[in-house]
Every structure is written in C-alpha cells, then in structure tokens.
Write a structure and sequence with these properties.
By secondary structure, the protein is of the alpha/beta class. It folds into three domains: 84 residues, MurE/MurF, N-terminal domain (Udp-n-acetylmuramoylalanyl-d-glutamate--2,6- Diaminopimelate Ligase, Chain: A, domain 1); 208 residues, Mur-like, catalytic domain (UDP-N-acetylmuramoyl-L-alanine:D-glutamate ligase, 3-Layer(aba) Sandwich), CATH 3.40.1190.10; 138 residues, Alpha-Beta Complex (Protein-Tyrosine Phosphatase, Chain A). α4 packs across α10 and α9 packs antiparallel against α10. The longest helix has 15 residues.
C-alpha cells in the first residue's frame, strides 16, 4: 500500500480506533500471523475451525504494527487496534477503498480452466509496452484479491488480475471489488460443478465478472467455446472474440505442435504474425490469442507482444519438461480437469522422439455426481492419443483405465489406490528406461507432484 495510514483504514472500514496512532503509515496487509514484511496491518480472519484473533499478539511479535479486531470493544496498547464488525468484510472494504484510489487500467481473467496461465500470458504480452502488475500466486479469492490490489504501486502502469470462484455469488463479490476495465472469460467447463450443480450454472456465474466491468469496458470471449461464442457483453460494453476460427476477431491458423509446443499464425485485425510458443499444449494457442487481443486493445505493438509471449516458459508443475537419465518427464501435476488432462495427453502424443509414451493419471476432483463418467471419457478419448503404459492413481482414475481398455488405448495398465502412492512411485521407477517420455497429471490433492519431484530428483 502507498500513502495509507491507520486513519485511512478506519475510514475505509467504517471502524473505530480503540488505541494507537492514527497517523501511523501502513505498507502491507497480512492474514498470516507468522509472516510480516514491514509496516503490516494484521487482519485476523474467523474461519470454521480457527479464529485468528487469538494470534494477534503473535502477529505483533512477528512485526505487525496494527491490527483489525471484531472481538475487542476496548483496548490499551501502543499498537493501533481498529474495531470492525467483520474482519473479512473489512478486508474487502479496504480493497474497494484502495481500488478507488488507483488510476491504472485493470484486466480481469476468469474461467473454468487456464486462468493462471492466461493471466501470465496476458501480462507477458502487455509487458511489450508497459510495466505490468499481475496477481501473485493464487491470490484470486474474496480474501486474496483485496490484498492483491493493495500491492499495486505507482510504478505499475497496468494490472492483470485473476478472479476465481468456487461457490455461487463469489465472483460477483470479487468483480465488484476489482472494477476491471477489461474482462476475459477463458472457457466454461465443469470445474466446481460439484458446488454449482450444472454447466449452465457455471456459465451464469462466469458472466458475473461483468458485475464489476466498468462502463465502456471490453469483454473478451473464447469464440471456440460452445457456451461463449454467442454470448454478448452487457449493455454499455463491447465484445471481442478470440479463437481458432474466422468467426473470431482474433484467431490462430496453421496450428501444429513441435515437441509439444504450439507453432501457428496469429491473425490480428488482418495482420498475420508467426508465433512459436515455448509452453506446451495446443490449448495455449487460445491463451496466446487472447493475450494478443488484450495487448492490441492497449496499443502494444503486436511484434513486441509476440516476442514477449515467446519468452514465456510456464511455471512449476504446469507442463514443465525435465530430462533425467534419458527419460523425458512432463510435470503437469498442479491440477486437473477433463479438458486439461486431454490437453496433457495430446502433448504426450506429440513427443515424436519418445520410444515409449507413459501416462500417470490421478483422480480429478470436484466433478460432482458424473465424475466417474468424466474419467471414463478421458480413457475413451485416448483412442486417438494412445499410450504404451498407463498408470492410474485413485478410485476415480480407475475409470480412466476402464475407458482406455474399451478402446485399446493403452498397451499396459497398472492401477494403484490413492494411499498407495509410494508403491506407484516404485513401480514407475522400475518401469522407466532411457528414451521414455512420461506425463504426470492429476488434481493437486492427489499429490502426484511428490512423485514428479522424486523422478526429477533422480
């Protein structure tokens, strides 16, 4: 935070200063009592199992200089204590207050899959002209987004924010805090269908990013997505489509994979630009196209935007490639959905130099009552992207094996229960020989990342 004092926080939250100096400057907000960065305001959140008010003194010991509270009516202390009705709501009020002070444009990104990679690629393309601030890590929630906003500083010229959701109404809250100038919806899938009930409900929730889209703003939509290609922005805003067909305003053609990385021609307002990404998977073509569309909207020279996109190589546990002992390892263990798992298998299939293609696939979570069917469909889809050896981990992943067997999509199949991850790792290590290429993909909670780390370590 810049030029923010305790008095500003009292004003933003409608709170009451119980004690301490109202002129004290504040620079950061922390919700973790163990980690402070200097001049921190501690926000003790109240969760289902833990009330962080009991860690206020620990936060001061770690370096916090002020705190919010909803549990103390009176206090005598050298530190400022600010009484609010609800600390989570107060945190969001601070986010709104700080956003209203910002003058730089903000781009918001949501979608069922690919939000984080799209955020990174949009930020990369915009960096062809601007100093770009982007959401750090996964700070895209009702708690993370307000803190993210307060980290924007005067040197930043444009911001790219990831806006997440896992329950009805959540995106509306986040969008209204962010008040973005441009919004991107990457796709409408089935992630979080367990909480939202249907893909139609997910579609309606994703569109609520417009609840915070400023008048005159632009909504960028995936023209390849069946649920988005006919969607229009709300009144007072314009719509831009991106995709792989001429029905879009920005599209890619002549697409191919070279050792897993997309090579294509980007068509941007009648201009044609060759693009060679250094991140794996054909799904990243769409991410690149919306990055170019947003960059063009902000007058970034397209050649500069392409150059920056071509320097992006992804990040840990998202289709990162390693070579160990003559074995190629594709670590894509960060998370999984049916769409992203198929994309990973497509990448594996594009590895032309591989003597054997080996897939290690684990459960995909939060897919609701049809989860077994979604897993089985991945196995059936493997008919067009077969593997030599298939390892599955978890009860749902067994359905992937069953689907693959019905289509003879795997030469050998080995299944392990979720608790048998160590046995899976040992069997995989015994199986691998020089020249193999192995893909590891599953929901983060299945901890395939530990298996990948062990392979990479070796």
């Amino acid at each position: 935070m810049e030029h923010i004092t305790v008095k500003d926080i009292v004003q933003a939250t409608g709170g009451r200063l119980l004690c301490g100096d109202e002129t004290l400057p504040l620079i950061h907000i922390s919700i973790d009592s163990r980690t402070m960065r200097g001049q921190d305001l501690f926000v003790p959140l109240v969760g289902e199992n833990v009330d962080a008010h009991r860690f206020i003194e620990q936060a001061f010991s770690a370096g916090a200089v002020a705190t919010l509270t909803s549990e103390h009516e009176e206090k005598t202390d050298s530190h400022p204590w600010i009484l609010v009705g609800d600390t989570k709501q107060a945190l969001q009020d601070i986010g709104r207050f700080y956003r209203n002070r910002l003058t730089l444009p903000l781009v918001g990104i949501t979608g069922s899959v690919g939000k984080t990679t799209t955020r990174e690629m949009v930020a990369a393309a915009l960096s062809g002209r601007y100093q770009v601030y982007k959401t750090p890590g996964n700070s895209n929630s009702q708690v993370g987004l307000p803190i993210t906003l307060t980290e924007i500083c005067a040197d930043d010229e444009i911001g790219v924010l990831e806006l997440g959701m896992s329950m009805p109404g959540e995106l509306t809250v986040i969008a209204k805090i962010a008040q973005v100038d441009m919004a991107v919806i990457t796709n409408v899938g089935i992630t979080h269908i367990e909480q939202l009930g249907s893909q139609e409900n997910i579609y309606r929730e994703k569109l609520t990013i417009q609840d915070g889209l400023k008048d005159g703003g632009v909504l960028f939509l995936n023209g390849d997505d069946p649920m988005l290609r006919e969607t229009k922005a709300k009144a007072g805003c314009s719509t831009v489509y991106y995709g792989t067909g001429a029905n879009s305003d920005y599209w890619a053609e002549d697409i191919r994979l070279e050792e897993g990385c997309p090579v294509f021609t980007a068509v941007c307002r009648a201009r044609r630009l060759p693009v060679h990404l250094h991140i794996m998977g054909s799904h990243n073509v769409l991410n690149a196209m919306v990055a170019l569309a947003v960059a063009d909207a902000y007058d970034v020279p397209l050649e500069a935007a392409v150059k920056e996109l071509e320097t992006f190589t992804g990040f840990q546990n998202r289709q990162q490639i390693y070579e160990r002992g003559g074995v190629t390892i594709i670590d894509d263990t960060y998370n999984a959905s049916p769409v992203s798992m198929k994309a990973g298998l497509e990448v594996l299939g594009s590895m032309k130099q591989a003597k054997r293609r080996i897939a290690v696939l684990a459960d995909m979570k939060e897919l609701g009552p049809d989860a077994a069917r979604f897993h089985r469909e991945v196995g059936e889809w493997m008919e067009t992207h077969p593997v030599d050896v298939l390892f599955t981990l978890g009860g749902l992943a067994l359905e992937i094996e069953r689907g693959a067997r019905t289509r003879q999509a795997a030469t050998l199949c080995f299944h392990f229960e979720a608790e048998d991850r160590e046995e899976l790792c040992t069997a995989l290590e015994d199986c691998l020989t020089p020249g193999d290429c192995v893909l590891l993909k599953g929901s983060n909670s299945m901890k395939l990342g530990e298996v990948a780390a062990r392979l990479i370590g070796k």
